[in-house]
Amino acid sequence: MKKATKTAVSDIRFDDIQAPSPIPAGAVKSLAGESFEESINRLLEESRERFVLVGEILLDWKASVPHGQFVKLINERIEAGALRNLSYQSANRYMTVAAALRNGFVGPDDLPKESEAAYLLTSLKEDELKIAKKEGLVRSTVRKAELTAFRKRLRAPSPASAPDRRAELLREIERAKDEERRWAERRAQLEAELAAL
Q1: Of 48, 138, 159, 170, whose Cβ has the fewest other Cβ atoms within 10 Å?
Q2: Would you give the DSSP letter of residue 6?
Q3: What pLDDT is stored for residue 161 in this prediction?
Q4: What is the pLDDT of residue 40?
């Protein structure tokens, strides 16, 4: 077995890498008679179950606070360090998966084993989910890559709709400019009134 050097790292193969020194006893949880594959699969399954459980807890917490206050509350708790392993983006993903299960959008047996795939599947729109079912993508073994490609294909703008979308965007820009002008006028009025006081 060759020992890797800094200059040869890019030229070596996985089999050529020297094994690390033995791990001290007790540093790794016992596999309890499981193979490495069995342990990894079991732990990943437990991870998915916890992913859903965290989502359930977050949904219950959200239901217990006044409407519209949850985002502010969760962000405050994250910034304060009370939720040190969570971001609002992650919380939203957990809740999306848990809500989809709660509402029967996806059945527990169809929930993908990969947490990212579970989020991608449960965040599909209802019409997209119907297409995904027809294409055999609503299953526990679906991979993130399959769902990413599916969403990209479905959500890609068709060439025929590009001119329509362009016109829609131009109209929206004009509306925004009108609104900006109205707010600028209102601000000027308020500043004049304030100056007169």
Answers
A1: 159
A2: T
A3: 63
A4: 81
Q: How many CB atoms sit inside 10 A of residue 40's CB?
A: 12
CA pair distance 107, 95, nearest whole angstrom: 15
Stretches in the chain below the pLDDT threshold 50: 1-12, 14, 17, 23-24, 26-27
Retrieve residue 109's tokens: 């047996």
Burial 67-87 (b: 16+ CB within 10 A, else e): eeebeeebeeebeeeebeeee
The reported pLDDT for the residue numbered 100 is 93
Six token digits for residue 32 = 């309890």
- Say which residues have a Cβ less than 8 Å from residue 6's Cβ, sequence separation at least 6: none
- Comparing C-alpha atoms, which of 54, 37, 127, 66 is closest to residue 92? 54
- Residue 39 CB neighbours (<10 A): 16
Count Cβ atoms below 10 Å from residue 31 Cβ, excluding itself.
12
Give the integer Cα–Cα distance in Å for 64 and 78: 18
- Residues near 160 by beta carbon (within 8 Å), at least 6 away in sequence: none
pTM tops 0.85: no
In contact, 151 and 120? CB cutoff 8 Å? yes
What per-residue confidence (pLDDT) applies to 18?
A: 53
